[in-house]
Design brief:
It is a single chain. The chain is an alpha+beta fold and 144 residues long. The protein has a domain at 7-105: Double Stranded RNA Binding Domain (2-Layer Sandwich), CATH 3.30.160.20. Helix content is 40%, strand content 15%. The chain contains four helices and five strands. The protein has helices at residues 33-37, 56-66, 86-105, 119-139, and strands at 7-8, 14-15, 20-25, 41-46, 76-80. Strands 3-4-5 form a three-stranded antiparallel β-sheet. A two-stranded antiparallel sheet has the order 1-2. The longest helix is centred in the last third of the chain and has 21 residues, at 119-139. The protein is elongated, with a radius of gyration of 28 Å. 17% of the residues are buried. The model has no long low-confidence stretch (mean pLDDT 82).
Length: 144
């Protein structure tokens, strides 16, 4: 039986394999000969623009959260080269993408309602300011 490479984000949201593209590239940085020979870094592309799993609002939030990792087409590009093994980098990229989508699935918080201070609070503040002013006025020199 062939293993399916669908990405489960939540219980109800699963990104199908057809919306994911993986490309293996050589990682930069230290690693000796291994880094020059083995393509262990992973570029994971989620074709969010054409995905039918996510609603348009979620796609918009995902693009905003992805920032520089989002393309003009609405795709999300994740690069993973933290580990020396290709498999671990693949899992790292998939988990980072899942976390990004999970964050985008959360509805935005309701807008803040502006509030005004109560009449009593305003009066107390003014009274306190006047009291402080009197204290400072008494400290001043008389100007002899």
């Amino acid at each position: 039986m062939a293993e399916t490479r669908d990405l489960r984000v939540t219980r109800s949201v699963v990104l199908p394999e057809s919306d994911l593209e993986e490309q293996f590239i050589r990682a930069s940085g230290p690693g000796g000969q291994n880094v020059n020979k083995v393509s262990s870094a992973v570029q994971l592309r989620f074709l969010a623009g054409q995905s039918e799993v996510l609603s348009p609002e979620v796609k918009l939030r995902l693009a905003r959260l992805a920032g520089q990792r989002a393309t003009k087409d609405g795709d999300v590009l994740i690069e993973a080269s933290r580990f020396r093994s290709q498999d671990r980098n693949r899992e790292d990229a998939r988990e980072r993408l899942a976390e990004l989508v999970r964050e985008a699935l959360k509805p935005p918080p309701p807008p803040r309602k502006k509030t005004r201070p109560s009449k009593g609070a305003v009066e107390r503040r003014i009274k306190e300011k006047k009291g402080r002013s009197k204290i400072k006025a008494m400290r001043r020199s008389t100007g002899d």
